[in-house]
Design a protein that fits this description.
412 residues, alpha+beta, Thrombin, subunit H, six-stranded antiparallel beta barrel, six-stranded antiparallel β-barrel, 5 helices, 21 strands, 13% helix, protease, serine protease, Trypsin_dom, serine-type endopeptidase activity, Serine_Proteases_S1
Length: 412
């Protein structure tokens, strides 16, 4: 006779537990309004779409429009499920558009890293900067002679897990992304300029921090007298790639819209994107260059000046084999590391991206000598580990190019 009472109590406990879980998710997602009943679907269930149509509850919808964020319908493995139009779910092939957009600027101009002395004149007295004991792998000393004869000597340690100091203005598409605090701006990730008003970066950078400012044309962000003519822009919109589901590493892309259009010039200009036939080029085995302001070693100190690191692109399957040995592999790459991910590093180890490089560009050169964006710094295991090359979002992945074009190139 007591059994029905126990069952009723259990049901009440289950309902209470569900309500508590819903409250926790609502608190964690303060930016999204979620009402009771919205998250009670499982993957594959029918669910209501805002327009009144019936959709399917899924991990991602696969559409590319920033204006249409699909409603949430459930939770699986600590990630939200979204209610997708059935047409999107059952399309055998996503619509892709990688034809080059119409632009009025030149991209990917040759950026040669050449060690030079810079001279300028004030009256008949010379002001110049001289580099002494230059070793791009280890360190260099910069001696500045002022007009009144004063010498200022500055010593720099060059690291970046096999990195070298980049020449000023050598990589004019490099961007710094930061948020304001009580002491100024905290530069926490990298990015890359792709046209006059949009910067591409890594979505995971903005899970816990807000992209508020982008700096272009910088060399050493701690030195206002470094000779770089940098410019700062407010971020007025952040557009995340649809389907990103932390802790999974797939689709780690975000687009940042700048508050005004960039005046393209020698030290600030966009990188090329691999449109059309360039998207079909297999760059496995090709040399690539990473630029960034990241740590010089794992859990080390970030550098304030731009570094460049030369590495090699490996087959994605090589990274999949290596990373499959890690405990986090099942949660981070449940479908394996495939062609949506680029694998790059040094065959002997010691050259790699590190903390602070996230969102930054990996570039290769095309047949015309232009620099083309190959990847965006996304994940890694340690820094410079021989057995674990760095992982980058593969920009040649056509759904990514289609999304970039839809968001950043349709309103230029």
């Amino acid at each position: 006779m007591d059994i029905p009472v126990v069952r009723r109590r259990v049901r009440r406990m289950e309902r209470t537990t569900l309500l508590l879980l819903l409250a926790l998710f609502i608190a964690a997602e303060a930016s999204a309004i979620i009402y009771p009943g919205q998250l009670d679907h499982t993957e594959g269930d029918e669910c209501p779409i805002d327009s009144g149509r019936t959709g399917t509850c899924s991990r991602s919808c696969g559409n590319f429009l920033r204006q249409e964020q699909p409603p949430r319908c459930g939770i699986k493995d600590s990630a939200f499920l979204v209610c997708c139009d059935k047409i999107q779910i059952h399309s055998s092939l996503p619509i892709t558009d990688v034809a080059p957009p119409a632009v009025t600027f030149e991209c990917g101009r040759n950026a040669r890293n050449m060690l030079t002395l810079s001279f300028s004149y004030v009256g008949e007295k010379k002001i110049y900067v001289e580099l002494e004991d230059y070793d791009p792998i280890k360190s260099y000393t910069e001696k500045t002679i002022l007009e009144n004869g004063t010498e200022i000597v500055t010593e720099y340690e060059v690291g970046g897990v096999g990195g070298e100091m980049a020449e000023k203005n050598a990589w004019p598409w490099m961007a710094l992304v930061g948020e304001r605090n009580g002491h100024g701006i905290n530069w926490f990730c990298g990015g890359v300029l792709i046209n006059e008003q949009w910067v591409l970066s890594a979505l995971h950078c903005f899970l816990y921090k807000k992209a508020e400012t982008v700096r272009l044309g910088e060399h050493n962000y701690k030195d206002e007298n470094d000779g770089a003519l940098h410019q700062d822009f407010d971020v007025v919109e952040t557009v995340n790639y649809p389907g990103y589901a932390y802790p999974e590493a797939y689709h780690d892309l975000a687009l940042l819209k700048l508050s005004s259009r960039v005046h393209i010039q020698e030290f600030i200009s966009p990188v090329c994107l691999p449109w059309a036939a360039e998207s079909e080029v297999d760059i496995t085995g090709h040399p690539a260059t990473l630029t960034g302001y990241g740590d010089t070693e794992f859990q080390g100190i970030p550098t304030s000046y731009l570094q460049e690191i030369n590495m090699t692109v490996f087959p994605s399957v090589q990274c999949d084999r290596s990373y499959s040995n890690l405990l986090q592999y099942a949660n981070t790459w449940p479908k394996g590391i495939g062609q949506e991910t680029l694998c790059a590093g040094d065959p002997n180890g010691g050259r790699d991206a590190c903390q602070g490089d996230s969102g930054g560009p990996l570039v290769t050169q095309d047949a015309q000598g232009r620099f083309v964006l190959a990847g965006i710094v996304s994940r890694g295991y340690g820094c410079g580990h021989k057995d674990y090359p760095g992982l980058y979002v593969n920009i040649r992945h056509k759904p990514y190019l289609t999304w970039i074009k839809e968001i950043a190139f349709t309103s230029l």
